[in-house]
Amino acid sequence: MIKVCYYVVAYFRNNIMNRKEQKELLFDLVSAFIYTNKLEDVTLFLQDLLTKREMQILSRRLRIAKLLLEGDTYDEIEELLHVSHSTVAKIAGWLAERGDGFRKIIEKLPKQTKDTRWFEQSEWESFKRRYSLYFWPELLLEEIIKSANKKNKQRMEEVLMRLEEKSELHKRIEKLLRQNSSTT
Question: Containing domain of residue 169, as a range?
């Protein structure tokens, strides 16, 4: 009984906001996406905003919409992305009803030069895709790098170099701390 009451209270607590408050929250979220102009800012923001599972769900929805608009069949999409028929049908329904947001964004996405189906990938690539929750940061970076232009690729390389420098600095500091603790 207590558990049920907790869920009811939590449900009402989350839905107490009036329409104005809900619009303000949505405005803040949309504004945050608008003002993230740089690729690094977007990736950092998404990393902070979403869980791994949420990022995977949203990424799959976008890819399903893209494949549907490219003319792929439900069966091809289900096999390629390991999703259910109902998931593909849900996205297809959204595209049929409204879908303008999907269409505008997908038009702006860079075109992939090679169709990488599961049978064209190495065993390691297939493994990483199959267990994507474990490899999502690497997979996300790979997709970002593939779709980035030359200038953005240079910026990402600089960010990665800074991260490597940071980890080297961290190692040196740890070494110094260990040396200091052993001498005292």
Answer: 151-184
Residues 77 and 141 grouped into a single domain: yes
- In this prediction the pTM is 0.53
Let me know whether 92 and 116 are in one domain: yes
Is residue 123 one of the residues assigned to a domain? yes
Q: How far apart are CA 115 and CA 154, in angstroms?
A: 25
Task: Quick: pLDDT tens for 71-107.
Answer: 999 999 999 999 999 999 999 999 999 989 989 989 9
Per-residue DSSP letter, 119 = G
Cα–Cα distance between 68 and 92 in angstroms, integer? 7
Where do the H-state alpha helices sit in 70-116?
A: 74-81, 85-97, 100-108
| Same domain assignment for residues 64 and 99 | yes
In the three-class reduction of DSSP (H, G, I as helix; E, B as strand; rest coil), residue 109 is classed as coil
CB 55 within 8 A of CB 140: yes
Clarify whether residues 175 and 139 are in a common domain.
no
Distance CA 179, CA 184 (A): 9
Structural domain count of the chain:
2
* Dist. CA 6–CA 97, nearest whole Å: 37
